[in-house]
Amino acid sequence: MLRTASLIAFAVAASTHIAAAQSDNLTEQQRHGRQVLAQSCGVCHLPASLNAKTYGPPLTKAAGNGDDAIMREYIENGTPRMPAFKYYLKSSEIDDIIAFVRTIPTPGAAR
User: Fold this and answer.
1) Fewer CB under 10 Å: which end of the chain, C or N?
2) Residue 102: CB partners within 8 Å, gap ≥ 6?
3) H-assigned helices in 47-90
């Protein structure tokens, strides 16, 4: 029960962090991608607070060198430090995650 409450609290905090970083000019696909990213990828790629470090790299539109095929490859097949999600996420969910990540500006980028 405590673990479930912790996971829910983390997902809410991660969603809030992402939402704060993004304007709400997102498409339905991007909004769904934001949700799936927070639920499935957030534990490693999203800081729980502004002072926390992440296990994986922060995700921005530059992830995978800006190449959607590379990003799909990482998500589906994983890396030596990241699990594969091809049996966990649907192809459409991966598309949604990529669509959302492409909306996240890189740090220091001109606004």
Assistant:
1) C
2) 61, 66, 68
3) 68-77
Report which of 31, 18, 87, 92 is spatially closest to residue 59, judged by C-alpha positions: 18
Which is more confidently placed, 14 or 76? 76
Q: What is the pLDDT of residues 51-97, one digit of tens each?
A: 677 788 889 999 999 999 999 999 999 999 999 999 999 999 999 99
Q: Is the pLDDT of residue 14 over 70?
A: no
**Residue type, position 80, single letter:** P
User: 31-47: string of b/e by CB count within 10 Å (b at 16+)?
Assistant: bbbbbbbbebbbbebbe
CATH (residue range 2-101): 1.10.760
Buried b (16+ CB within 10 A) or exposed e, 50-84: eeeeeeeeebbebbbeeeeeebbeebeeeeeebee
| Residue 107 structure tokens | 């740090």
Give the whole-angstrom CA distance, residue 93 versus residue 80. Answer: 22
